[in-house]
Design goal:
8 helices; Rossmann fold; 8-stranded mixed sheet; alpha/beta
């Protein structure tokens, strides 16, 4: 859902995505059954340890939050953001009892975290993955070597190509830029080392892992150093720990 601000399609795609998630928010969780095992595998593959920090990109209604929080424990911290107010409101209600979960109402290119994270989860965040601007900005929030999990939809292999029209329209129901499903991961791969991808859902989906290259995290390290010297990082106005009253959202999965 994220394109560079200079792209004339940026606002159109963002508006389409916001409208689609506004319509889906109330019943969104009921549609997640088929991808739940993929979500579990993605979180498990992050290899999180107690006390670590993790970012849930486009956290939506917060379905990954309990898994992530369980993995990092009480001493760890889970960050999430979404630009859909309707989706994020549900995530905030879910996470309200958890003081170590912080949710932000922001688009990817607006994200500001108070510290660098040890892992990043992109679970069905197609629009963000199609925006180089969004990818670069999100990965600046991660330390060098941070583990990254990426899951989403893709076209079936060539021998099942007649089914890809159905895949396109299924993706169209949720994303502002629903196409480009042949290799939807190709814009994040240059930022990651050790990329490994496995098809899911009989070839209609994928689950992949990598680690953040040094260059992608340089600005995060600089920001953390500035914070240590007493310069607090800038955060979106809606940033708040999830234990505070619920507020708004960003595009979810």
């Amino acid at each position: 859902m994220e394109l560079p601000d200079t792209d004339p399609a940026h606002e159109r795609i963002r508006a389409l995505s916001l409208a689609k998630y506004r319509r889906h928010a109330a019943r969104y969780d009921g549609s997640l059954g088929p991808t739940w095992p993929i979500r579990q595998r993605a979180v498990q593959g992050l290899g999180l340890r107690a006390g670590q920090r993790v970012l849930d990109v486009g956290c939506g209604t917060g379905m990954s939050l309990a898994l992530l929080r369980s993995a990092v424990g009480e001493r760890g911290h889970v960050y999430g953001f979404d630009q859909s107010p309707e989706m994020l409101a549900r995530a905030r209600a879910l996470a309200a009892p958890w003081p170590n979960v912080t949710l932000m109402h922001a688009a990817a290119h607006e994200l500001r975290l108070p510290e660098a994270v040890d892992a990043v989860l992109f679970h069905y965040t197609h629009d963000i993955l199609r925006s180089p601007c969004a990818i670069e900005h999100v990965l600046r929030s991660a330390r060098p070597g941070a583990r990254v999990a990426v899951a989403g939809m893709k076209y079936f292999p060539r021998w099942l190509a007649p089914l890809n029209l159905w895949v396109y329209f299924k993706n169209h129901g949720y994303n502002g830029a629903p196409g480009q499903l042949a290799r939807p991961w190709d814009r994040i791969v240059p930022h990651l080392a050790g990329w490994q991808l496995t098809p899911t859902q009989f070839g209609m989906g994928y689950l992949a892992f990598g680690t953040v290259r040094q260059g992608a995290a340089d600005q995060a390290a600089a920001a953390a150093a500035a914070g240590d010297r007493g310069a607090p990082p800038r955060a979106p106005a809606a940033t708040r720990p999830s234990s505070q009253p619920a507020g708004a959202a960003q595009g979810a999965r």
